Amino acid sequence: MRIPFVLALLAATLGAADYPETTIRNGEIQAKILLPDPARGYYRGTRFDWSGVIASLQYKGHEYFGQWFEKYDPKLHDAIMGPVEEFRSADGGLGYAAAKVGETFVRIGVGTVRKPQEDQFQPFRTYDIVNGGKWAVSKGADRVEFTHTLTDGEGYAYVYRKVVSLTKGAPQLVIDHSLKNTGKKEIDTSVYDHNFFVIDGMPTGPDSSVTFPFELHAERELKGVAETRGGTVRYNRELAKGESVFTELQGFGNQAFDYDIRIENRKAGAGVHIVGDHPLEKVVYWSIRTTTCPEPYIHLNIPPGQEQRWRITYDFYTLK
């Protein structure tokens, strides 16, 4: 059997270095989780939360995640895999607008970073980490718990927990989150899951579809490459290397039941059903030839001393 390019590249990359990792299983699913580490971690960028990076998830012979990019650098902003998350406040990071050049602001799940000379926040820039906080990891046979504790000198502080677990006897992965504000300043932020799916390494094209429970309206012109039909994004042809589809999607309401997404590849014969327990704030959609990525946002507002929790559930299945 021919190994798809991205999966072969992943095997070569992971085999070339000793990255902290663990594997969880429940009899249905096997998943390889990469662990946060400021010195040896696979991902050390400043865009995405360092916890819960899934290098591989296999169910009934199908692979759902993997390396979708060609260039790897541990500090590259998108050298990451799986259903990874980014926290984005109105100005980019907590305290960014108030910070002067050389001062610091906060990236949740990363730490305190230094603000350089720039006109505005650059989401794809890798900032210098001044204080990475403290990571604690607890590993089990079918779950991994991450805790990130940070205290920033400008009044921001938090305890962020994420538990990645497999449901007993079911092809289901659950990501539970909690964010407790232990500082003096309010935490007002959005958080989204990028969902870098690479089902069996198949190219994005007519066999790929992403479905929502509401009528979709694309904010940008899809140029005939893709289109929305009812609640589904479909492709009219395979994406070429270097080609992308990018738009914000409208049509959802203010109820949590709209956070309901199905990603399928008919040629692979595999799909995944994603359900969140918070209302959608925004939906961004991005795909290239090697990955298909719905990006659902939710909003969090956490006063000092308060805590907020949220859950995302992934059910994996096969197609006839």
How would you sum up this structure, described in words?
By secondary structure, this protein is mainly beta. Helix content is about 5%, strand content about 45%. The chain contains 1 helix and 23 strands. The chain has one helix at about 5-15, and strands at about 20-25, 30-35, 55-60, 60-65, 85-90, 105, 110-115, 130, 135-140, 145-150, 155-165, 170-180, 185-195, 210, 215-220, 225-230, 230-235, 245-250, 260-265, 270-275, 280-290, 290-300, 305-320. Strands 9-10-11-12-23-20-19-14-17-16 form a 10-stranded antiparallel beta sheet, with no helix packed on it. Strands 5-13-22-21-18-15 form a 6-stranded antiparallel beta sheet, with no helix packed on it. The longest helix is centred in the first third of the chain and has 11 residues, at about 5-15. It starts with a helix and ends with a strand.
- Summed over residues and divided by their number, the pLDDT gives a mean of 94
Q: Per DSSP, what share of the residues sits in E-state strands of 2 or more residues?
A: 35-45%
Mass-distribution shape = globular
Give the termini separation: 21 Å
The structural class is mainly beta
The oligomeric state is single chain
Biggest β-sheet: count, sense, barrel? 10 strands, antiparallel
- By DSSP (H or I, 4+ residues per run), the number of helices equals 1
N-to-C series of helices and strands: HEEEEEEEEEEEEEEEEEEEEEEE
Helix content: under 10%
